[in-house]
Amino acid sequence: MTFSTHTPEETKQLAVQLASSLQGGEILALEGDLGSGKTTFVQGLGEALGVKAYVRSPSFTLMNIYHTSHPTIHFLVHLDCYRLGPLCDLQGLELEEWLHRSDVIIVIEWPPHHLLNKNVSISIIFEMINAQTRNISLPLSP
Ligand SMILES: Nc1ncnc2c1ncn2[C@@H]1O[C@H](COP(=O)(O)OP(=O)(O)OP(=O)(O)O)[C@@H](O)[C@H]1O
Ligand SMILES: [Mg+2]
Q: Where in the sequence is the signal peptide annotated (predicted)?
């Protein structure tokens, strides 16, 4: 289903809706151009899961890990593979301890192609329509 958002707040709200269907253990891939709202969406996930820290882009750190205050999902792991490209491999990023855990959600911006089929449970596509409008496709009923 594709939704149009017109403010960063609306994009975060969409993330809040998706968060209520997450069980824990999912890997989310966020694809779309620079500035299309991927990090904004992760900020919404953080709000929904009760992350108290400010969720910022991991474009230089590659990976940021947040504690949540959610009863069953205890960590939000946020990766940005833009700089590593195809070298971005879940096995090689000291991610092992976060994989396959039912109390962790992993979100990857700019996932390299080789990760998409094998590891990802939810794909979200962002399109920049104009300065304010984003089309966001994700598995969510209207
Ligand atoms: N409807 C909208 N949804 C989300 N962001 C919006 C929207 N309208 C305007 N914006 C602005 O677009 C920018 C989105 O930036 P954001 O960092 O979320 O993008 P990104 O997809 O993570 O980019 P990058 O690929 O560089 O990491 C922000 O400056 C935000 O204020
Ligand atoms: Mg980003």
A: none
Task: Output the CA 128–ligand 1 centroid distance in Å.
Answer: 9
pLDDT tens per residue, range 43-93: 999 999 999 999 999 988 899 999 999 999 999 999 999 999 988 888 777
Q: How far is CA 10 from CA 5, 44, 54, 101, 128, in A?
A: 5, 9, 18, 30, 14
pTM: 0.97
The ligand that comes nearest to the alpha carbon of residue 57 is: 2
Atom 26 in ligand 1: residue holding the nearest Cα: 34
Class assignment of domain 2-137? Answer: alpha beta
> Beta-carbon neighbour count of residue 84 at 10 Å?
15
- Domain extent listing, the chain: 2-137
Pocket of ligand 1 (CB under 6 A): 5-8, 10-11, 32, 34-40, 57, 59, 109, 126, 132, 134
